[in-house]
Amino acid sequence: MDPLVFSTETRLLPGSFPSPIPLPADAPRTPENRGHASSPNDFTASSFNRRQPLFGKMRSESPPSPTVQKSPQLVHEKLRSRLNKVTLPKGCKGFVYIFRNPKDKLLKIGSSETPYERGQKIKSKCGIQIEVVHTSAWLEDYGRAESLAHGDLWDLCRPFTCVPCSHRHREWHEVDDELATKTVDRWVKFVKEEKPYDSGGSLKGLWKFLFSERQQVVPWVAAGDVAGNVAGNEKRRENIALMLESPSVKERAEYAWFVISRHPIWALLWEFPWQVSTVIAWLIMFLIARNSVVFLILAIYVGLVWFSMSFHFKRGLKLKGLGRR
């Protein structure tokens, strides 16, 4: 795979979690097991309401657990997809916030122009007595920073279905305050200070180049580290912090040379060496002599070169057309 081409593959977050007492699909219904789902897909809201209180009322006290552990490589693919996603800024500034649910200690990472009002809405809509853990600096493209933080902590995401609002929340994470704050601040700083995206919402060429070059020294994921383990993802996060450092003068110079050396003008010069060299020679003579005769000769040569190149391109297009028949 071309290291400069970031994957646009989208991976969905985990689906429903198994019921507390899963039963085989063909298990008979009895008074003892009535009310429990026969499979995760049959786990209805009514049975969920009876069996699991939410945040002390309609959801169990224990935090949700992922159905499968996510390997460092899988989490990296999710994050890389989000890094490469073309997203236009909302045109206003906002914050990335971290809220805590004191019942099960899960942390919600979200973004809003008004975090306080957002917290009040969560409290009234979902019945959660939230605590504010952290609020980021004010920035544009705050939604992008939130999305990247989610991708970085995807291995710690604990989605669940909220009965009061009938939504499946995917912003809650089983993570300590320090790691959550460090992750949010890292991506907020990257988006706010480095400005890695252009006006169209695409990742700039400089950062594509930097990611490609830096991963040869500090890989996103350690070679052979495909197991879904905590240590592997912690090491991946350490490497990401190094990947997001500001480019040095040397790296900027290397990128400038990378762009210049691959400019299509060089292919044009190689294709028409004598035409281009003649025009350059007469241009130099005109800059030295600065008289109308030399300028006239220069203009004639420019016209002849233009005619020669146009004829060449038209002939090439005709030959390509004949070759397709």
From TrEMBL:
Stretches assigned to coiled coil: none
Listed Polar residues bias regions: 36-48
Positions of the UniProt region annotated as Disordered: 1-48, 55-74
PANTHER family: MEIOTICALLY UP-REGULATED GENE 113 PROTEIN (PTHR28094)
Pfam families documented for this protein: T5orf172 (PF10544)
Record-annotated Bacteriophage T5 Orf172 DNA-binding domain positions: 94-188
Swiss-Prot/TrEMBL keywords: Membrane, Transmembrane, Transmembrane helix
InterPro entries in UniProt: Meiosis_regulatory (IPR053006), Phage_T5_Orf172_DNA-bd (IPR018306)
Membrane-crossing segments per the record: 294-313
UniProt entry tagged with the keyword Membrane: yes
The protein, known as: Bacteriophage T5 Orf172 DNA-binding domain-containing protein
